[in-house]
Amino acid sequence: MRKFLIILISILLLSFISGKNSSNTLHNVEMEKLDISQYKKLSQLFYADKVNRIDSFLKFSQKYYGFNGNVLVAHNGELILKKSYGYSSFPEKEELKDTSTFQLASVSKQFTALAILMLKEQSKLNLDDDIRIYLPNLPYKGVTIKNLLQHTAGLPNYMWMLEHNWKSDKLPTNKDVVRLLSELNLPVYFSPGRKHEYSNTGYVLLASIIEVVTKQPFEDFIQNNIFSALGMCHSFIHSAANIDVQSDYMLGYFRRWHRYRPYGESLHDGIVGDKGVYSTTGDLFLWDQALYDNKLISEESTEEAFTKGKIRNRWSFSYGYGFRIKNIGEHKVIYHNGLWEGFRSAISRFIDSKNTVIVLNNTSCRSMYFITKKIEQINNEDIELAPEYQIIRTAINYGYGFGIERYEWLKKKDPSLDLDEHLFAKVVDNLRQFDKKKLASIVSRLSQDINS
Q1: Residue 144: beta bridge partners?
Q2: I need a labelling partner for 55 at 20 to 30 A (CA). Which of 98, 103, 301, 360 fits?
Q3: Catalytic residue among 43, 106, 345, 353
Q4: How many domains does the chain have?
Q5: Is residue 69 helix, strand or coil?
C-alpha cells in the first residue's frame, strides 16, 4: 500500500507541477478562472459516496416512511444533491419537478424577519419601537417590534380568535386580524419580555407593520426586495383571501384509507407573514447563499438575527429573529421547520461548514424531521475530512513525502485505515482532463472549501 501511495501521489504531482521541486505548492502556478461545470464534476467525486447514501436513504424513506417531496443538500457550500421523490398531484400521478413550489409554513417567518431588518437598516423603523406607533388601535402596551421577532410579546393566538369570532363567509386577512385584536381586547398570556413562547400572531403583525411602513402590500415588498433581488423566480406569497391573484400553487395532502387526499381551504389561508411563502429547493438555496454573502442586509444585522434572545438579559432561549438556533457539538446550526395543511418543511444551515439541508414535503409525512436529521448526519459526518481526502490534499499542497507522513500519522490513529485505490484512480483519471492552470485553480478552490 505504501508503494501504491508513492506512485499515486507522484502521478498527481507530475500532473500538477512542471519542473518544480516536489515541496513547492500550487500557489506558485498562475491561476485561471475555474469553469463551473469542470469544478462541479471534480468536486462530485469527493462527495459521490455521501450523495449515494443520502439518495438511497431517501428512496428507502419514500417506500417505508411515505416521504414525498424535494430535497437539496449542499456540502461546504457546494450543491451535491437536488432531487425529487414522488408526486405533486396524486390523482393525476404528476411527478414532482425542481420547480414544484411548496408552502413553507413557518419557514416563511425568516423572510418576514429579514424584511423588518431591511427596513431597520433603511432607518424606517427601530426594533425597540412600540408596535402601536404603526398599529395605533391595538390595546397592548409596551410590545416592541423586537418582542414580535423573538416571540416574547405574549399576545393572544390569532387562530383561536378567528375560529371563535369570525362570522363572515369571506376569508380574513391580516387587516382583519389587527382589527379584531383591537376590538376584542383579548388578554395577553404574559407581559412583554417576561417569557419566550412561540407566537404566529407576532409575525402576522410584523407583516402588517411592513405594509404600514412601505405603503405597499406585504407580498409585493417581499417579491420586489427579496425574491426578485435574489433571482428566486419560482417563489411567491399566496393569500387565499386575495381573489385578484390566483397563483399556480401545489396542494398539501393527508393519507386516509391508503389514499392521499388534498386538504381543503382553511379559515387561516388568507393570513400571511407567519406562513404563506411558496418556494422551491433551488430558490431556498439561493436564499441560503445570500445569507452567507450578506446580499440583503449587513453582516452585523445577520449576526444579530442569528443570536439567541434573552429574557430580562439573564436567561437565553434558542431563537433569534425568524431563525431557530442550536449547537451540534461545536457547530452552530441556524434552522427552522414548518407544518401547515399537508406541507412540512425544514431548512438547516451549519454555519461554520456551510453545510445545508433543505427538505420540502407535501404529504404530512410524520417521519419528516427524523428524515431531515438523518440527512444532516450523513452530510456532516466528515466535517472532519475523510482520511483519503486529507492525504490527497496534503500531498497536493506540500509534496508526496508529506502525504506519506499524513497517511502514517492517520494509520496510527486508526490501524484499520486502508486507501480506496478505485477512488484514487478515478480522481487521477479526471484530473488529467484539465490543463495545468485550470487544474491548479480547481485544487486551490477545493482546498479552500475543505478548510472553510
Answers
A1: 130
A2: 103
A3: 106
A4: 2
A5: strand
